[in-house]
Amino acid sequence: MIFVLFAVQWSVAQEDLLQKNKWSIEKAHAWYAEHDWMTGANFNPSTAINQLEMWQEATFDPTTIDRELGYAEGIGFNTMRVYLHSLAYKADPEGFKKRMDTYLEIADKHGIKTMFVFFDDVWGKTPKIGKQPEPVTGTHNSGWVQDPGDPASKQNENFPALETYVKDVLNTFKDDERVLMWDLYNEPGNTGKLTSSMPLLKSIFIWAREVNPSQPISAGIWAWDFQELNAFQALNSDIITYHNYSDEKHHQHIINLLRTHGRPMICTEYMARTNNSRFSNILPLLKRENIGAINWGLVAGRSNTKYAWNTPIEDGGEPIEWFHEVFRKDGTPYRQDEADLIKKLNEQE
């Protein structure tokens, strides 16, 4: 009986913390109205196979970041979604934050605001600090790693260190105008984790609410059959974010469903050409609906995401059609008609 009472009290306390500092619908719309239509990409420099290679001191590459964000600026992109990693912070907390600041300086120079991502349930389960593996030839995201990993994300003894990391980063940048918003957890429940990700998902929302950054917080809905996770994410996000790699008919259906929450929306992942999620059919839809549009991939590189999910090309040859990415390494668009469309829609302000 005592245990049940404690559990109920703890649940109420959690709910109070989750609601503390949550943005009203009116505040969310006022914030959204202050910004131009948000368009851009999920950004990992072409020289990095994953988040660790991007952020570790030995492989942090501001020269490439500057060049490639210049490509983005050239077609009118104004927003990048960028993954962090707790192991890079753990290895060097102050250096990690300085590298974040350097990245933000570069992005700001190009007129680009940044949405940072904390945790991630996708791909490699056992991230390791230090030198990262070489890409597997012709294989999509062969070196991408989860954060904090599996089973690490399910182990409560890891939560105090993760809380320190999240709160330190948030407190450092909570009033930084170069930061657009905070995406707390990418695709919770992916890679077979399902609702085992719920404790960490709830915890990071509580940690963020306690810091109360000036920027909004969110966690994107991505699997439409994950009812418990989806409800939590939608009901606790200041701005509704979501992923959709389907055609315009399905994408419109998802927009119609998510509109019921009454909050501004940003699609933080789309554009998989061979799934018929393309710039030509999805970007005009998102523009018309006034929904932020962040596609997967900017410049083809070590992540190999020009290759489709689970369909490797073993000799590393060119796919018949690129899955993701906008540019080749030299800044040439993969498709000039796409680059022209992106630029045209971004100029219609």
TrEMBL record:
Stated family: Belongs to the glycosyl hydrolase 5 (cellulase A) family.
Record key words, sorted: Carbohydrate metabolism, Glycosidase, Hydrolase, Polysaccharide degradation, Xylan degradation
Region (Disordered): 130-157
GO terms for biological process, alphabetical: xylan catabolic process
Domain of life: Bacteria
Name the UniProt record assigns to this protein: 1,4-beta-xylanase
InterPro entries reported in the protein's UniProt record: GH, Glyco_hydro_5
Record's signal peptide: none
GO molecular function, one term: hydrolase activity, hydrolyzing O-glycosyl compounds
Source species of the chain: Flavilitoribacter nigricans (strain ATCC 23147 / DSM 23189 / NBRC 102662 / NCIMB 1420 / SS-2)
Domain Glycoside hydrolase family per the UniProt entry, residue ranges: 75-297
A Pfam family that the UniProt record links to this protein: Cellulase
